[in-house]
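Protocol step 4 of 5: obtain the predicted structure for the target chain.
Materials: sequence only (see below). No template structures provided, no constraints applied. The aim of this step is simply to have a reference model before the mutagenesis design in step 5. Sequence pasted as it appears in the construct record:
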Amino acid sequence: MSKEKREQKKQLKLKKKQSKLEKKNKIWKENYGVSYNEVKDKISKKKQKGFPKFKKLLGFYKESKGGMILLILLGIVGGVISLAFPLAVQNIIDNLTLGNYGIIIWFALIYFGTNILTRSIFWLFYLTSSKIMNKVSHNIRVKLADSVCGTKTSKFDTSSSGNIINRISNDPSNFTGCIEQIIDYSVDVIMNLMFLVYAIYVNVWLGSLMICIGLYSFIINTFFIKKYYKPIAKRANILSDKNTSEYGELSRGIKDVRYLNIKSNFLSRITQTSLFRFKSNYNLTKIGQIFSSTRSYGMSILEVGFIVFGIYLVQANIVSIGAFVVVLMYRFNIYQVFNNASSVFEKLQQGEIAAERMCEILENDEYPKEVFGTNEVENITGKIEFKDVTYAYKDSEPLFENLNFVVRPNECVGIVGKSGQGKSTIISLITKLYDLKNGQILLDDNDITTLTEKSIRSNISTVPQAPYIFNQSIKENLLLAKPDATQEELENVCQKAFIHDFIISKPEKYDTIVGEGGITLSGGQKQRLAIARVLLKNSKVILLDEATSALDNESQEKIKKTINAMKKEKTIIIVAHRLTTVKDCDRIFVMEGNKIVADGTHKMLIKNCEAYKNLYQNEEE
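Step 4 output (structure tokens):
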């Protein structure tokens, strides 16, 4: 065959393969809402020899080394002792056929004693196993939560909550459950291996035939796991993440669902994802049953041959009736040696999938981590400086370029301008929620990239426009900022934030549970509680990003008095649309065209800055 023809044949083969893949993608998308490529890409990225992520997470078992050794020893001891079962049963049957009834009682007692002993050993085995697995699950969850806290903010802008929730909540249990089952299956292999040894001891050909039947079962199971299991399991995880996210969104956004009257639309979306999930799970069960049935049919045929061969051995006086009956009685235990071996492989696959998902969070891969410096600064003066700062969100035009300004210690500065100018982004950059591409941000003349996380975030507090209030009591929400705060301190900051009167009007007062996201509070109450939380933290720099936007005029005036009382003691930056919020600031930055076009007091800007004057007049109208 010429080189040209070989190339044509190769291209034709590739086209057929591509066509087949496109067809499969279409079927998967229509039936499950997930294309085959989405799953295939995830598998190919992780394709390495062995089970690398699984092995990595085994490090969490180091603390329980002694317990794991005890489990192995208990399994081996239990397996060896279990060999007494078939020996006792064989002797009972053989002596029964010979009429030696007296000796049967002794073998019955041996059987009884062995049963009590093995039950006791495995009671201790499973108790120890449960303690170790639950402890490891706990440690992995804590580590995952810590890793999520250290993940870059930009990742949360594009990730679904269900993806993260499932990885923290379900995957640790899935992983440790696989380990527990692998140990369980391995112990079963040891125990049942004793029955196989017994079968070979009775007759090597009889034992060999049972090995062939077991190997047939093992090959069928392993082929199914390798060929079908992993992609379908990956697909199930993706659909589970989507479903969990949608349920979470329904819970958090139930008010908006009702405001907009979109219940039917929202339920339709949830129903569709849930249907895809049902079809995916059913598909896995269906394929599994096909292989299971194929295995059972084949084994049934082989077992007929085994029985015929056993009868021949009995008739030829090569094997006693008791020995053959025991081997026949315990044949499924012998098959379990091979079934459990394939089950171990299946659990390794399941464990690797869970480990991969968790390692994506633990490692700096799909969930990149925040990076801080090593320079520790405890007490700062509060000076903030932007030097030629350029920033753009991913795949977007720069919000601002070469931005320069200085906020002096104990100065109160306002930032105003139309929406989309990057005002809130400035607040996010000061607290290092996002990384700079160009330029420098200095805190007390220290580049924030050189500072530790504690140096930045212990000295700076932020109140965003929509602060998150945790599903705890009001007191617990406040104590997050200062765990050792006294009741007097809590009441003091709440009075300054003008929310104390509201709190004591509730039956449970400071122990009132506010619901997820503070759902039982109004927007203004959330903002005032968030302000109280920041006041309790008592950091040197306070950033207020539209922090009074949900307040009425009277409440806003009260908060302004609180802010004014902190001036000259703290550095304060206020981002606001309402200019009344920043009128009393020492200086006001006016942003237009994604840059600062003016800087001065309210009176100066009204006289000299057209952009500020227009903002003020529009507000007055």
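Step 4 remarks: Strands lie at 384-391, 400-407, 412-417, 438-443, 446-447, 460-463, 541-545, 571-575, 587-592, 595-600. The longest helix spans residues 263-315.
Proceed to step 5.
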